[in-house]
Specification:
Layout: H1 9-13, H2 40-55, E1 60-62, E2 72-78, E3 84-95, E4 104-110, E5 118-124, E6 126-132, E7 138-144, H3 145-158, H4 169-196
Antiparallel strand pairs: 1-2, 2-3, 3-6, 4-5, 6-7
Length: 199
C-alpha cells in the first residue's frame, strides 16, 4: 500500500532493510506468533520497518516483507477523511463486519513486494484488528476506507497472502507483467530515496 508524509520518530532511528518480492518463500506462509515483548530486538525491527516502508513509499509493511517470520506490521496511512494513522500491531487478529453490514469497495491497490503493479481489489470499507503493542499491551485498531484496506492488506501478508491471491488468474498475470516492466525503476527510486536520507 502506498502514500507518504514526514518521517515518524521510529523511522528516524531505523535502518533500511531489503523488501522481499513476490515468489520468495517467506511471503507464501503464515508467520509465527511473537512470544517475547519489550525486547530491544523487537523495537529495532519496528524502527527498521518504519524506515523501510518510508523509503519504499508504503502506507503499511508486514514483517515478512523484510524477511522476518513474525506476526507484526507497521502502518502510516490516512483514512478517507484524511486522518493519518501511524503505529504498529503484533499478533493481529482481523475482524470484518458481518455480511449484512458489509460494504465491499473495489479500489486500486499496490504492494511493496509486487513493485510497480497496481490492480483493483475488493475489500470491506471497515475493519478492526486486535493485537498487542511492542510491550505486550492490548491494542484495538479500527479502520475505515483506505485505512481499513491497509489493515486487511497487511493482515493478509501475515497469513502468507499477497493481494495477487485475491485476483483472477488473468488479473494476476497482468499485475506480474506490470511488475516485470516497472520493478527496476521502482528499485532505483527506493535506492535514491535511501541515499537522500543518508541511509
Amino acid at each position: 500500500m502506498s502514500v507518504r508524509h514526514d518521517l515518524p520518530p521510529e523511522a528516524e532511528r531505523g535502518s533500511v532493510r531489503r523488501v522481499t518480492v513476490v515468489g520468495e518463500e517467506i511471503l507464501g506462509r503464515r508467520c509465527q506468533e511473537v512470544t517475547e515483548f519489550g525486547t530491544a530486538e523487537l523495537s529495532a525491527l519496528i524502527d527498521d520497518m518504519f524506515l523501510t516502508m518510508y523509503v519504499a513509499d508504503g502506507a503499511g509493511l508486514a514483517a515478512n516483507q523484510v524477511d522476518v517470520d513474525l506476526r507484526l506490521f507497521v502502518y502510516d496511512c490516512p483514512d478517507d477523511d484524511g486522518i493519518r494513522h501511524v503505529g504498529h500491531i503484533i499478533n493481529p487478529v482481523l475482524e470484518l463486519p458481518g455480511p449484512g453490514s458489509r460494504r465491499l469497495v473495489d479500489a486500486s491497490e499496490g504492494c511493496l513486494s509486487v513493485p510497480g503493479a497496481t490492480m483493483a481489489v475488493p475489500r470491506t470499507d471497515r475493519a478492526v484488528v486486535r493485537g498487542r503493542d511492542k510491550d505486550g499491551n492490548p491494542l484495538v485498531i479500527e479502520g475505515t476506507g483506505y485505512f481499513a484496506r491497509c489493515l486487511q492488506h497487511e493482515a493478509d501478508h501475515l497469513e502468507g497472502h499477497t493481494y495477487l491471491s485475491r485476483l483472477s488468474k488473468r488479473d494476476r498475470k497482468d499485475a506480474l507483467r506490470q511488475m516485470e516492466d516497472r520493478r527496476e525503476d521502482v528499485f532505483a527510486q527506493r535506492a535514491a530515496k535511501a541515499e537522500n536520507l543518508g541511509r
